[in-house]
Amino acid sequence: LLFLSNHNYNAFTTMFYYFYVDWREIGVFLGSAIYGMLMSISYIKTKNEKNNLLYCAYFVMLLQGLLKSFVRWEFVQTSYILSFIYILFMIKKKATGK
Hints:
By secondary structure, this protein is mainly α. It has four helices and no strands. Helix 1 runs antiparallel to helix 2 (53-67). It is globular, with a radius of gyration of 17 Å.
């Protein structure tokens, strides 16, 4: 019954929506700065260590999040967040052979 409420909702909010709700402009600034640093680190590590699958996987997932940033769907799904941890365990096991 959202159409009966007096609230307006925007379907195309950014991935920093929750930062905005909690801390307004400062939250968006800090959230985008942290995301930018993570993208930068993962890009540099992927570029310098071409055989490291872990950095490549993280970079691709962060890039996917950036490309889909006009909709916050990816960032509210627990499976998307947990996939970073899953990749860490799977790639470590594969690299050690266990």
